[in-house]
């Protein structure tokens, strides 16, 4: 039976007992005019304890999916806790980058006024495509041309930022742009170059079942856009 559509005159059910926590969070996001696409971070719209409540909610819905797939989760010892495992995996592991704040990044002043190209990589990318939620596994290289005002951040922090951005359902083209925006905002370099190469399991495990193809894309910012020599230097230093 279909549910009757709720009347638009009713106030949002934010305080009611029994309102799913996802509804409360969504209403908060909508009230702020905030986007909540798969690859957006919504951590600052979650109240304390709500991630745990979301775990219970997603577990219940995953159980319903397993039931609809006619899997005997009561009788089959392998799937007895699968709904909970999958909920935990989505919310606290593979899509954690949606629900937690950005990692703390220690920044140091650029006292030596470094202005030479710095490259870090390959950093491991673990993500999933927004379309099928299939894994996207790959590598990313980041090149930074600092200036005297650039904040120097610890090398490991680039890996932490990559992990935070990629820990959401993504499409590769948007993932590299989000990463570039974040690093530009945090470090304010003269230039930034990012190259990502990844295997998309939605193309190998299923669908066309193409095992060896990878997607490679790049984003260039600042002087990397205007200085072809710098761009070439960066690309030549990335191991083939
Ligand atoms: N551009 C881009 N496409 C992606 C990425 N990840 C997955 N895709 C593609 O997104 C598409 C999803 O399209 P649909 O046609 O709706 O899905 P589908 O019917 O299951 O398609 P098939 O994968 O061809 O079976 C597929 O072609 C995927 O290969 C990505 O990061 N970037």
Kindly summarize this structure in a few lines.
The protein is of the alpha+beta class and 240 residues long.
Describe this structure in words.
With 240 residues, the protein is an alpha+beta fold. The chain has two domains: 21-98, GTP cyclohydrolase I, N-terminal domain (GTP Cyclohydrolase I, Chain A, domain 1), CATH 1.10.286.10; 107-237, GTP cyclohydrolase I, C-terminal domain/NADPH-dependent 7-cyano-7-deazaguanine reductase, N-terminal domain (GTP Cyclohydrolase I, domain 2). It is built from nine helices and seven strands, in the order ααααββββαβαβαβαα. The chain has helices spanning 21-31, 50-68, 82-94, 96-99, 155-166, 172-187, 201-204, 223-226, 228-237; strands spanning 107-108, 118-129, 135-145, 152-153, 169-170, 191-200, 215-222. Strands 5-2-3-6-7 form a five-stranded mixed sheet, sandwiched between helices. It has a two-stranded antiparallel sheet with strand order 1-4. A hairpin with a 5-residue loop joins β2 and β3. Mean pLDDT is 92; it is low at 1-14. The chain binds guanosine-5'-triphosphate (GTP). Guanosine-5'-triphosphate is lined by residues 129, 131, 171-173, 200, 202-203, 207-208.
């Amino acid at each position: 039976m279909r549910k009757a559509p709720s009347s638009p005159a009713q106030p949002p059910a934010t305080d009611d007992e029994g309102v799913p926590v996802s509804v409360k969070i969504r209403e908060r996001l909508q009230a702020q005019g905030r986007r909540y696409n798969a690859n957006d971070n919504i951590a600052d719209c979650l109240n304390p304890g709500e991630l745990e409540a979301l775990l219970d909610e997603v577990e219940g819905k995953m159980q319903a999916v397993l039931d609809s797939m006619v899997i005997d989760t009561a009788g089959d010892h392998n799937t007895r806790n699968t709904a909970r495992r999958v909920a935990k995996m989505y919310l606290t592991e593979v899509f954690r980058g949606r629900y937690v704040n950005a990692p703390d990044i220690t920044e140091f002043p650029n006292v030596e006024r470094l202005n030479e190209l710095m490259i870090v990589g390959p950093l491991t990318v673990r993500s999933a495509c927004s379309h099928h939620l299939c894994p996207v596994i790959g590598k990313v290289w980041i090149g930074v041309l600092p200036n005297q005002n650039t904040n120097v951040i610890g090398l490991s922090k680039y890996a932490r930022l990559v992990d935070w951005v990629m820990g959401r359902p993504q499409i590769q083209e948007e993932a590299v742009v989000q990463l570039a925006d974040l690093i530009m905002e945090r470090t304010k370099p003269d230039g930034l170059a990012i190259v990502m190469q990844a295997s998309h399991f939605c193309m190998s495990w299923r669908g066309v079942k193409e095992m060896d193809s990878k997607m490679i894309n790049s984003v260039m910012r600042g002087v990397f856009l205007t200085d072809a020599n710098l761009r070439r230097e960066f690309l030549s230093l990335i191991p083939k």
